[in-house]
Structure formats: structure tokens, C-alpha cells
Design goal:
By secondary structure, this protein is of the alpha+beta class. The chain is about 15% helix and about 40% strand. It is built from five helices and twelve strands. The strands form two sheets. The protein has a six-stranded antiparallel barrel. A six-stranded antiparallel barrel has the order 7-8-11-10-9-12. It is globular.
């Protein structure tokens, strides 16, 4: 589990994708502290397992599902990436619950400055957008952010200077892809509602009869 609070900007030292899977090597420093082989590190929000460690970096395997769901398939050597170690049990919970399991990607369509903050608008498919709500949480390339506005095809977040300096989000260009992870609570609610719709002879949504039946 992660919090979406970025610890360090790493650099892709090498990435090798053959077909739909491969390996990535990342230059880093801070996230290596206390890390051992088998630990998880979020790379642009993607939970990857450390397969080898070096004095100035680590490598991880990339499976086909990761390439399909994320922007990693188009990543290039030399690119900066957001890094976060899995949350320690005694650590502060500064962001929100982040699993590191990417739901899909979005496309940056605009940046707009407002005083000391930058508004970022991101277009994304309906299956991701429908789980995004105003003032809810969204994880963008591993960054925990609060949704400021939701439209019919896109949503907006407001990025403070510290987040801009510590992450890659404001270094990207219009048209660039970002990895998105919806708030896990919304996904469970949708799954529960979906279960209800699939049951025969039941109305859509959670009903009073359903709550009574399950003692809720």
C-alpha cells in the first residue's frame, strides 16, 4: 500500500519491453534506503517488485497487464519518474489509500496558472471518469491529488508549488499520458452496485430490502 506522497524523482536508466512485458532499471537514491529484493516501489504510480538492487538504483520486472493498463510501454530511457516506497506500518498517512494498481491512463489537455497554483486538466475514458468525484481523491502518476472539478470527458486538479517541484506532473506536455488510479472506495462501491444489477428479480442499486437481508 502507498500514500501518493512522492519521495523522490528517479531516472529510467534502461527499459526493455519485448512484446508486452520486460524489465525496467531505475536510478534512485532515497527509495533505496531500507529496501530489499522483493519489496514494492511505486514507479509513476505503478506498484513494481524490486528484483535486484545496485548502489544507485534498482530493477523490476514489468508484466503484460502493467503495459496494457499504464503508460509504461511508451516510457523512454532518461525520463524522470515519481518514486514512493510502500508505506511503513508506523508511517504518517499523508495522502490517501493507493494500491499501485493502475486503472488506465489519461491525457493532459491543458495547464492554467492561477496565482501560486497550476490547474491541470486531464481527459480520460468514461470507465475511469465515472468513479471520479469533485473533492474526492485521484492518483496521477503516483501523486495523491484532490479533484477540483469534473466535466463530461475530463477532470481538473490544482497543483501547489511544492507538488510541482517534487513530481513530474508539471514537467509533462499537453498530450502526454499519465497513469490513473481511482479511489479504491469508489471501485468497491461500483462492484457492489454491479453485483446487485446482476442478481435476478432485483432492482438496480442498493435497496432497503438488500440492507435488511444482509443486516446492514
Amino acid at each position: 500500500m502507498f500514500t501518493g506522497i512522492i519521495e523522490e524523482l528517479g531516472v529510467i536508466r534502461n527499459i526493455s519491453i519485448h512484446g508486452t512485458s520486460g524489465e525496467i532499471a531505475i536510478e534512485a537514491e532515497e527509495v533505496l534506503k531500507g529496501t530489499k529484493i522483493g519489496d514494492s516501489i511505486a514507479v509513476n504510480g505503478i506498484c513494481l517488485t524490486v528484483t535486484s538492487l545496485q548502489s544507485n538504483g534498482f530493477t523490476a520486472d514489468v508484466m503484460a497487464e502493467t503495459v496494457r493498463r499504464s503508460s509504461l510501454g511508451s516510457a523512454k530511457k532518461g525520463e524522470r519518474v515519481n518514486l514512493e516506497r510502500a508505506m511503513a506500518a508506523d508511517g504518517r498517512f499523508g495522502g490517501h489509500i493507493v494500491s499501485g494498481h493502475i486503472d488506465g491512463t489519461g491525457k493532459i489537455i491543458s495547464y492554467k496558472k492561477e496565482e501560486n497554483a497550476i490547474w491541470v486538466e486531464i481527459e480520460t475514458p468514461d470507465h475511469i471518469l465515472r468513479l471520479i468525484m469533485e473533492k474526492g481523491s485521484i492518483c496521477i502518476d503516483g501523486i495523491s491529488l484532490t479533484v477540483a472539478e469534473v466535466g463530461s470527458q475530463s477532470f481538473k486538479v490544482s497543483v501547489i508549488p511544492h507538488t510541482g517541484e517534487m513530481t513530474t506532473l508539471l514537467r509533462k506536455k499537453q498530450g502526454d499520458l499519465v497513469n490513473l488510479e481511482n479511489d479504491v472506495i469508489g471501485k468497491y462501491v461500483e462492484r457492489l452496485l454491479g453485483f446487485q444489477k446482476e442478481e435476478p428479480n432485483q432492482s438496480n442499486g442498493i435497496t432497503m430490502d438488500f440492507l435488511k437481508e444482509y443486516g446492514i
